[in-house]
Amino acid sequence: MLYSQVALFIVLTIMLVFLVKYQEKTVLVFSITMLICYLLGWYSKDDLIKNASNSGLATLVFLMLIAVALAKTSILQKLKRLLFGKNERKTLIRIIGISAISSAILNNTAVSAVLINAIKSTKLYFPSRLLLPMSFATIMGGTLTLIGTSTNLIVNSMYISEGHEGFNFFTFTPIGLVVALLGCLVLYFTSLFLPKIKSDNTKDKGYFIEVELQAGSKLEDLSVSGAGIRHLDGLTLKTIIRKDGKRIAQIRATTVLKSEDKLIFVGDISKISILSQIKDLTLHAMSKGFDNVELVEVIVKETSPLRGKSIKAINFPRNFYATVVGIKKAENSLESEINDVKVKAGDMLILATRKSTSNNKKFGKNFYLIDEDVELHNILSGWREKLTVIGFILMVGYAVITGESLFNTSFLLLALLLITGCLSLSEIRNSLPIKIWMIVTSSLCIASSMENTGLAKVIVNFSADYLQNLEPYVIFAGIFILTMLLTELITNNAAVAIMFPVASNLAQGVGIDSFPIIIGIAFAASASFLTPYGYQTNLMVFNATSYRWRDFIVVGVPVSIVYIATCILLIPIVYPFN
Where do the RCK C-terminal domain residues begin and end (predicted)? Predict the structure, then answer.
């Protein structure tokens, strides 16, 4: 048994290292760990079936699919019309309020995708003073309800798997409301320290655009200065990739152009027509036969199966009837030609496509469309919209009043939405949270392995022997901060999946109720205000404007301090340890 405990500890340590190193491969890392544990006999087939099909996990799936239907209503579109007030400060209050409230019931990345375009396009105020507060507000708004963020649902499903009653819809609300109010108050003042960048200086900047120098061109053998293409209006030649693959990153005035060079420009995508007017330069899109079409701007979804694949491997012309004109990445660098660039969640793409094809289902599965002309194509209307909204309100109200499990009410509402056409089978298939289901199932199987090998008991005994004299408050604060730090290193869902079994066993060893600690884990996993990469909405606004890391620190540190202090002080009061 001792050997199994040591071996499992080593496996889990390696898993954590790989989660930190390969954040894009979270599901794969968890799945391989689950498989190793099964092959080594640390949990049984019955454990696997039980963990993969518990009612908490089913509730998670039902609620996330219902959220898809809610996102199809015109709620956000109507709220978007209320964004702008008489001055910047009143506008900020509106944006923060709308973002937080919307994120309580809708996916916060979907909320951000809809609001980003309206905010960054405004000529009235500085978008840079509004976008980052919007992102932080959606994060805090997600803590208001059970379905506000996937981490809340994951914690709920894992809590149910231990034999407890699940959370109700408003379990998180007392703490979340105070956290959101105080956090948004801090945002109101710290936003004054954000840079004043006009919309003309934020919109469409930082895109990488590829053109090719045609063979036999008159520009061949000229220097970039002599050809007059080193600095264009709004565009700068950043990189040259030779026909043999040689990459020239340091462009000098004397750098000579060669036949079939691929030229990578960076700058304002709206100036792309300048490149198309230069004779013998062929845009990447035109080389694929996609001239004379419209350009749409999209953001790669965090759930897209395209993540980690190159532009060439994705084959946009075949799969989306489109081609990539420009790409904008958070790291603001491009190491290869566009075809070889690997797509990440949060990347912004400019696609040359036909309007009819930009409305297809594949787009909805992989991208947030932030182009004004195409964002309304999938909106519910009439009685279907009313049915979705009223049905959701009744589901929540019935569960709260009667204490009925959300499993039953969410299942009935989902079935009703499917029967009435508010959701289609293809939408359900495309929106199934398979990755979250795999992470939770893997985590539960790992927890079973810890139980069966005795590693869980080791943690319980350790806490009983060495932590017994510590105040429960100290243990709670330690787990909260550890979860928060882990969230900055790996994904928030992975942090919850790892910390839940550890926290549960620690609480058991010390002899206190695990509930407040579990609630703390959920809030800690949503506390990502310090970097652009810690949370999807942060990455989206980072790409959408000209923010620097310093801006996240200036605004994020005060918000984080208030968030942490409020949670650590308030959670044990609302949900005592005994």
Answer: 195-281, 283-369
